[in-house]
User: What shape does this take?
Amino acid sequence: MSSETAAAPGDSLEPIKHVTTTEAELEKKVAELRAKVKVALEEFSRESESFVLRARADAERERETLLATAQREGDAEAKAIVASGTARADEIRGKTPAQLSAQKEPILTAILAEFRPTGKRPGA
Assistant: This one.
């Protein structure tokens, strides 16, 4: 028989205890990392929600600004059209029937020219 001394029974459990201890430490680190990731995700979620709310508010302000600008421009254009029509009506009011009759042909020609194909103007 050999003269080697057998290892004590308590010594054979030492590697298993070490693995168990290491495993517990790793599980603790994983749990800590999960908690950190969860906190970071919650923070990112709050930040992104805040960004979305600010972007919506900015878009709404921009929409209102553009709408107000378009309204002003439309009102100005409408006033210009009405002023032009009023001026033309005032010109017509002061004319005699003979003068109005003399303008009938150029007016009809101009209006009908809008409905003719390009290049087919009268007298062409």
User: Anything to note?
Assistant: Confidence is low (pLDDT under 50) at residues 1-7. Residues 14-93 form the longest helix (80 residues). The helical segments are 14-93, 97-113.
